[in-house]
Structure formats: structure tokens, C-alpha cells
Amino acid sequence: MTSTQSTPAASRPGLRVDESASRLVSRFHRLEKSVLKNLPPSALKLLLLESYSEADLCHAGEFAFLVMGLKPAVLIAFPSTTEDGLSPSHRRASAQILMQYMRDVWEPRVRNEEIRLVRLDWALGSPHAPFLCGAWLAIGLRHAKATQIEDVLAASRLTGRMSEADLAWILDYPCQVPETEPDPRDGYIQVEYRAAWERGEEIVLWTCFVASEARRSLVLAHFARYREATQALGWDLQLRIQ
Questions:
Q1: Strand partners of residue 73
Q2: Alpha-carbon distance 170 to 156, whole Å?
Q3: In the chain, pLDDT over 90 holds for what percent of residues?
Q4: Where are the beta strands (DSSP E) in the chain?
């Protein structure tokens, strides 16, 4: 008889949900929180563009998914490094702050891990993210997609473009946005995965993406997989759809 019971996250191939992963993620979260807290007000104003919050600068949730082996890669950027319509000087200043953030937060935490940091230092964009140049990609080298991600990046150096399909695949989104302007009649939803880092603390954003209403079932299955893995490390992941 075939068993209908699901395999626990802790025993699934490719997933890392042990105590060492929990410690690594917690150390990253504390370090990132300290570094961002000490940014001068002028830097925060430059990065947030008056329409984002300080939570939009944080990558600890994405880092957790990367370490656990859920995500093959994480795109690391601040709002002002990828936003359209900014001056070249604004973009350069934002990229310099991002570079220092990488040195202070990411590099110390991935130094002894199988994670490769790649600066997207060539002209690069996707249909809905036209300014990816200056952002970073953290690639989990243990992930089955790692080699193929390197191939996609090599191709993008030649073309200067990355499709929304490739970007969604690299970042493990359950579905992609269209390559052209979305049709409002398709009913797009904003999906957020949120959790508190410590019991009793505020529930904060861990990751977000856009999906069509027609793909809601894919989103729910994706969330269930992420929630099971994070629960194995003691975090209660929650879903918000707007």
C-alpha cells in the first residue's frame, strides 16, 4: 500500500533545517538589524524614496530561505538601486551604500558557507525590473539549480536582458509575471510571507512577490512548503495576500 503521509521537512533531500542553520540565520538577522539601525538618516532617505519602509531594506527572511535550501538564489537590492526614474547620481550613491552593506552583513555570514555572491555589474534588466545593474545575487551552491543559474547569468551578460520567467525560476517564485504589461483583468495579487523573529515580537516581512489570481493554488502549495521548513526551525511563517 502506498503511504499518503508527507515526508518531514527535516528529512527531505536538499533541505537544511538543523540547529546550525537556525544559528546562522539568527546571527545574520541580528547583524543586519544592527547595521541598518546605524545607517545615517541621510542614507535612509536616499534608499527609501519616501514611499518604502525600513523593513523593505531587510533580507534576513530571504537569507533564511537560501540557507534552508528552499531558494536557489536571493536578489539583494534596496528600493533605490532598482527603482525606475532615478538619476544616475542617486543610483550610484545607493549602489555604494549597498556595497558597504554587503561587506558588513553578507560577506561575514557567508564566508564559510557554500554561497556565492555575484555583483550584477553589467547592464541588466528584466521587463518589469529594468535596472538590475548594481544589485547582487546570492547563489546557494548546494542547490540543484546552481549550475544552471550560472548559465543564465552568463547569457544575460551578452544580452543585457533577463526574462521574467528566468528571474522567477532563479528566485523560486511559484509563478511569473508576464513578459509584457500585465492585463489588469487578470487580477494580480501581492503575496507576502511574514513571521516574527522571536516570540512576542512584531511580525515582519520575509519575502514578497506578485502572482496572478489564477495561480493562487500554486502560491498556496509554495507557501505550504516554505512554512513546513521554517516551522522545523521554530518560526511560524504566515501568509498575506492583498
A1: 139
A2: 13
A3: 71
A4: 73-76, 115-119, 136-140, 188-195, 204-212, 238-241
